[in-house]
What we know:
Distance between the termini of chain A: 40 Å
CATH superfamily of the largest domain in chain A: Aldolase class I
Radius of gyration of chain A: 21 Å
Number of domains of chain A: 2
CATH class of the largest domain in chain A: Alpha Beta
Largest sheet of chain A: 10 strands, parallel
Shape of chain A: elongated
Oligomer: homotetramer
Structural class of chain A: alpha/beta
CATH architecture of the largest domain in chain A: Alpha-Beta Barrel
Order of helices and strands of chain A: EHEEHEEEEHEHEHEHEHEHEHHEEHE
CATH topology of the largest domain in chain A: TIM Barrel
Amino acid sequence: MMIMMAPEASPEQIRQVVARLEATGTVHPKVVPGASQIAVAAIGDAAAVRGLGLQALDGVDQVVPLSRPYKLASSELSHHAPSVFDIAGRRIGPDTFCIVAGPCTVESREQTLRVAEAVAPHAGMLRGGAFKPRTSPFSFKGLGRPALEILAEARERTGLPVVTELTDLQQADAVAEVADVIQIGARNMQNYALLEVAGKLGRPVLLKRGLSSTLEELLMAADYVLKEGTDEVVLCERGIRTFETATRFTLDLGAIPWLKLHTHLPVIVDPSHAAGDRRLVEALARGAAAVGADGIIVEVHDEPEQAMCDGPQQLRTRDFPRFATEVLAHAALVGRRPSTG
Amino acid sequence: MMIMMAPEASPEQIRQVVARLEATGTVHPKVVPGASQIAVAAIGDAAAVRGLGLQALDGVDQVVPLSRPYKLASSELSHHAPSVFDIAGRRIGPDTFCIVAGPCTVESREQTLRVAEAVAPHAGMLRGGAFKPRTSPFSFKGLGRPALEILAEARERTGLPVVTELTDLQQADAVAEVADVIQIGARNMQNYALLEVAGKLGRPVLLKRGLSSTLEELLMAADYVLKEGTDEVVLCERGIRTFETATRFTLDLGAIPWLKLHTHLPVIVDPSHAAGDRRLVEALARGAAAVGADGIIVEVHDEPEQAMCDGPQQLRTRDFPRFATEVLAHAALVGRRPSTG
Amino acid sequence: MMIMMAPEASPEQIRQVVARLEATGTVHPKVVPGASQIAVAAIGDAAAVRGLGLQALDGVDQVVPLSRPYKLASSELSHHAPSVFDIAGRRIGPDTFCIVAGPCTVESREQTLRVAEAVAPHAGMLRGGAFKPRTSPFSFKGLGRPALEILAEARERTGLPVVTELTDLQQADAVAEVADVIQIGARNMQNYALLEVAGKLGRPVLLKRGLSSTLEELLMAADYVLKEGTDEVVLCERGIRTFETATRFTLDLGAIPWLKLHTHLPVIVDPSHAAGDRRLVEALARGAAAVGADGIIVEVHDEPEQAMCDGPQQLRTRDFPRFATEVLAHAALVGRRPSTG
Amino acid sequence: MMIMMAPEASPEQIRQVVARLEATGTVHPKVVPGASQIAVAAIGDAAAVRGLGLQALDGVDQVVPLSRPYKLASSELSHHAPSVFDIAGRRIGPDTFCIVAGPCTVESREQTLRVAEAVAPHAGMLRGGAFKPRTSPFSFKGLGRPALEILAEARERTGLPVVTELTDLQQADAVAEVADVIQIGARNMQNYALLEVAGKLGRPVLLKRGLSSTLEELLMAADYVLKEGTDEVVLCERGIRTFETATRFTLDLGAIPWLKLHTHLPVIVDPSHAAGDRRLVEALARGAAAVGADGIIVEVHDEPEQAMCDGPQQLRTRDFPRFATEVLAHAALVGRRPSTG
């Protein structure tokens, strides 16, 4: 339920409403500022909310239902305005386009610094995996904590904020110490214990859609993070699993305009994992800009043939400037400027 | 197998090769002109071709295998150059972007003429269903033959070539008489009897991908049409069936760059059926242009609320000019001019 | 809508109702006998039916809606009783289990007769393809009409009724002359022109589920056949296309109990095409019997290694007797006796 | 790689091989006893294994590759014999059929004890959720630790071993204290941190297939658990996500015979979650027995209409005896006796 406060409601009246909701023990209240009036979202036990008779309280305008299965991520909650985040000086929102670029995996200090410096002029953030979730336990799983230090050094040199994945809640503090944005990977999209920990770290979270998760499930997963206190969740479409095997996954670009109608959260696109083939990545990145994404996250390597992971899909550093220019041209057509520092 | 003729091979030498292949009874030969040399594709029984010892013939340079399961549609067959078609004065190929627009179904003379005139300044062709395949036999199935006459009249008034669907080989002649392009719908992509008839009508064919057909299967379906003599087959991605139900189908825009690597045939995109919701169509159409499609096919209606079929996904005629302008801007960025008359 | 006639309604009163429905021009009436009262199903334009005011007519008990998107196939139409068919002396229905067996393709007279004689003691019907739909136009497509004669000879020798596929309406009469049951393959499940022709041939129809057709779509496809006059449509689950490639298709055995709740038509299972691997076929056939299917259709070959089509999935004739015995034991547990001659 | 020891190899020679493999730092060695000879599986860096020249050591017969992407779960590793586990007196393996039954969620002491007592005569184990992973964070998530005490009491009263889910590694010790079998749910199948913790708890693990995980991925997930020391992993097919929505998920019964060919681990089936509808559960449970599963896990409630979770799919306690009898009859036909205490 949404308790719409009257435009003239006092802070004390709002506190009253929140207090009554909290007293139920089964409702999660959240104050939502709007252009002309403040609302209090009351999420959880709707019967308990109705039982409180809040519409009779001073300062309450009306009580309306939240109609969707996702609540905190819903555009209903934001009065249908898109959220804008400032992340370490990079703006993510409807007027900008943010290119997150970097190697799939931090393989060495030299490789990471080389790639970071190559992408820095055009990218908005640096990506790089320290802990890699792998299908087989006998595959290379990343350098771990030493990789975090390398990413911190790359940030210092280039000024690029760092996006890196958290796979295990036992590493949460170590990752949060370095990361500007904490990535939750597709395989962990419904690892609810991890989502709740990620929501408590005080960092923005990049939440990737699961391989076969519906968009409603993605938004409910975002609710897990948002209810822990973080306001800044960025969604990421990265391809879904279908019968088609010509591409590694089927990139669902139709998800972007759908999400724009249903959530206030920004959405970026990962064309690298979906394509699984470097030759398709640029076309998909242009498509992502054209359908209205708020950015992309792409893998770049200086020697993809030598990469320890996902070599065939990583762009070459020497191709990156032209790549970025072309993608940003499509973003400009839909009113977005580059989200660089 | 491909028999690559020497650059200096004579027409008689080429005829010899073709004659030997035909004499096997199990091989389908096709002469393929190239920039510097002519090839003869020998499709079917590879063992029979090898048995002919063609590499010993005068004028034959070498015999190389066609490595893919699709043959006539393969980019291997075109020496990796994209095909360009001129269809009733409209160019379909790598330098142009063709917007095929019109109502889902021809509902009446007035509605069809109104829509045709509204789209004419920006569209390359007119679409409109006379025979509609419907999931239930008790749904409206189109006006049938009278609709063909209405489409012919709309063409006369606007100059737009007509694209309309063939659903039943018993209507093949009637449809071919009016249509400039014969559409084969998604549900008939593997209706091989219909494909073979369509290939014999002397008209270009627009072949839509089946709801759950792989891209390889789409190209093999194109082979069915191409082997009957038609050279002009245009492919159409229109969304595939996946677990996701937020959109009606999942538009597979990654299919476009993949097809560009693997076939010489043009590819257009149908954003209307994939989205099932007007509010998503423009974003997907822009995305189609950005990923490198050769055009789009969209449904437009003057009163979508009154449409007999698929109302919610049809664009409004009053929104069409702005829609077309925005989509063509993205096409221009990738080097394509409008394919108008 | 269903017009439920009073138990004492006269034939003339029923004719009256049918005549009024027909006079609308937009309604398809069908008389449905029941245990205690007769109903007239009025399919199509529900508004027109309501406009007739039939509940005021003598002999009419009440007018109730048909709530499902499929009509003639719905269990609502049969007063929730399963249909039982007698096909050339074989019973298909809730008390029997029919094993349809034979080669994928009729390759030669000798092979077909050998297989037919091997399966005759345990099978209820003989399957064999004369016309094979193939993904590539350059693959072997069956012997065509000569194969029909071979099947007729095999029937004469063994007494087994013949099931064979119709792929092209131009062959409808030739196939109907030989076939006891006309099969419509998965790729043609939504080839509506073919369904309508099949429904007019006066033969039972075996309708296979499309690779990615929902169960509701399967029942609406059955409606296409049923509305042409044939009452005997047998459905066939043969595996659907999913992300999993370990098996060729994913056999949806859950479809069987769902169909039993929603349609009166019999349902059989094709474990051969779903598995694509002989080693899995017996387990799936046992599973089909246990979930309540009315039969199975399996491919059997005397030398699968030499088969022209689908060799790896065809059972060996020498394994067939044991196979049939094991499957029939599971069928017996759910109250079904073998449907043999 | 597999190092096959000679039949006469001494324990010291085997220790030598293991020591050399461990010394590489990149290989995981595992001793695998067989009927006539012992093998040492060397999993991980194959190049390092080849570099050791083990075939020259005394006691080594030969070095052969492990050809599949999953290693410890592979039937290659078990010399193609199925594993048999004794879990708290219940036998899981090729000669038995184990029915795991109980409520979806532990809702109260009374409800749990009532259900446990009702299923005890026919079931092999008791299931019940203490911690429930829920798609929305605002849904009921189980009673938590108090539920574990209730399950322990139910075990004491009925003698049924307890299966319960671990969703968060922070609860690992609490769950392991009570559970006889630790369940990993479908959404956590690729939560690798959780798999590794589960593998260290000294308890058998029931690993459910992810909603859209391939069978190869399921076996690689099992490798994550097995490499931590647990030998007893039971797999569970519970339905995959496909385009079909008539049933909640598509139960992939073809997975069972495929898994029997490729892994030595037992496999059970969850028909309740796949069906999502009580009326389909019995048919699917019979099917599971007939295709060769080692058991089933089903949800049973005394008042499903009042259930806090998944009511429509829970069997009624009063129907359970007949249900179990029918399912066990199909299991008996394939040579399996009930796995009761």
